[in-house]
Amino acid sequence: MMDTFFRSLIFFLIFFCSLLDICKSEHEKKNADYNDVGDEGGIEIAGDELNNNSNITVCTRRQNSIMHEIQTATPIQFPFVVALMSQRNEYVCSGSIVSNGIILTAAHCTPTVSYALVNATSDKKDETVIQLHVIKTENFPTYTGGDSPKNVGILFTEKHNNTIASKIRLSNVTDSKNLNEMEALGFGLNAEVGQSKTLQFIGIEKRSRSGDLIQGFFDCIDTKIPTCFRDAGGPVIFDNELIGVITKGQNECTKEITSSYAINKHVVDVLPIYTFKAWLDEQIVKSQEQAKEPLEVYPSKPIFREAVHVMTSTGNVFSFCSSAFAVFQILFISLSFY
Known about the structure:
Blueprint: H1 2-36, H2 48-51, E1 71-72, E2 81-85, E3 91-99, E4 102-105, E5 115-118, E6 130-139, E7 153-157, E8 169-170, E9 181-187, E10 199-210, E11 213-220, E12 227-229, E13 235-238, E14 241-248, E15 250-254, E16 263-272, H3 277-288, H4 313-335
Parallel strand pairs: 8-14
Antiparallel strand pairs: 1-10, 2-3, 2-5, 3-4, 4-7, 5-6, 6-7, 9-10, 9-13, 10-11, 11-16, 12-15, 13-14, 14-16
């Protein structure tokens, strides 16, 4: 009888060790997948290898440091950008998380926003998207609507922990002299009516100013991607910091540009951060008194915790491992009575 017991024990030990290897490998794969997604911090430079490939059409410029072409963002690439939605589940504008419970956007967007989609790469809900409800809104004190120059506002949402999103750091730039090329982000920049609005970004150049506003231009000599900016409220970033809010886009798309001529196109109006930063800092300080915990600062990603899982195929493997371990314990106890 003892021989039977020891043979059974050895069998289950071998089985259990194999099971541990499976669980460990799946766990490592899950962590690797999470950390690898969206490592592209921003707009990529068109390298020689890309330009020499005749099968790839990209926007090429004679002297460019960032890509002047609309590109689609990957999941968690910009974990501070949110899609602002109405009570009727319709897309309104883009926004940026600047503190726990505070979203920055254009003032004209705030009246109809009901909630924000966080971790979203489109204006559609799915199992990976977090929904934050708007508690109240506040616009810049001098904003009066219409063509008011300080077209900026904030949305106060429910507080959340640092596994949900990161925040964008506010730039301390005090003028636009050193701001040349920037990244502008938004949803559905060149989407047609009825199409899903995906998170996109494009390189822009500061060419001129109109009062407080910076005018951002698209500068390209070869692209087949329709180019326009059908969004507002989103961030403009430089060196991983927020330097402004997009107050107005450009709805008319340029369908195709060939290398036979160059084009300079005004695509966005940007209200720079230094025109409203003192007011925004004051709102953030007031809000931080009730904050749950500080958020990671972009380009850092939200903190991953093992206790937070989305049930995917990997999650099912973890459930199987736990269940199998419980069965093993029961069988071991039963065999010990022989």
